[in-house]
Amino acid sequence: MQTAGYLILLSAALHVVGVVLGSFAPSTWVLLLPAALYAVVYFGLARGWRWLAWLTFFMMLIGAAGALAEALTAVAVPAWVFWAIMATDLSAAVVLFGVLWRSPRPA
User: Fold this and answer.
1) How far apart are CA 87 and CA 27, in angstroms?
2) 39, exposed or middle or buried, with CB in 10 Å at 0-12, 13-18, 19+?
3) What is the rounded distance in angstroms from the CA atom of residue 22 to the CA atom of residue 76?
4) Where are the alpha helices (DSSP H) in the chain?
5) Among the listed ranges 23-27, 51-55, 73-77, 102-106, which one has the minimum average pLDDT value?
6) Least packed by Cβ within 10 Å: which of 12, 27, 35, 59?
């Protein structure tokens, strides 16, 4: 789960980069909410919370779809930022898929 956590932290950083490259336009501030949420999720995954990994798996799929939608529209943020967010979100989802569908370790 730690690898997925690092990918999610990278995605959070890319959200902040999007705000900076968007010249702090008011329309870019909405990117700070997922960035903060992803940072909190990282700490939960670092603690090995499997229930949070399930939620995060679906959250990453939704986040990737949102990044794709934003990449295909004209916004203040360069499109490559959204493509990078989509790639990291999908990568995190793939890693989480592998972690979740593997048999759980005995306690």
Assistant:
1) 22
2) middle
3) 5
4) 2-21, 32-46, 50-71, 79-101
5) 102-106
6) 27
Quote the CA–CA distance of 84 and 47 in Å, as a whole number: 26
Task: State which amino acid sits at residue 78.
Answer: P
User: Residue 26: pLDDT above 70?
Assistant: yes
Tens of pLDDT along 27-47? Answer: 899 999 999 999 999 999 999
Q: Which amino acid is at 82?
A: F
Distances (CA, A) of 83 to 18, 19, 86, 101: 11, 15, 5, 27
- For residue 59, the one-letter residue type is M
88 close to 38: Cβ distance less than 8 angstroms? no
- Evaluate if pTM is beyond 0.85: yes
Cβ–Cβ under 8 Å, residues 21 and 77: yes
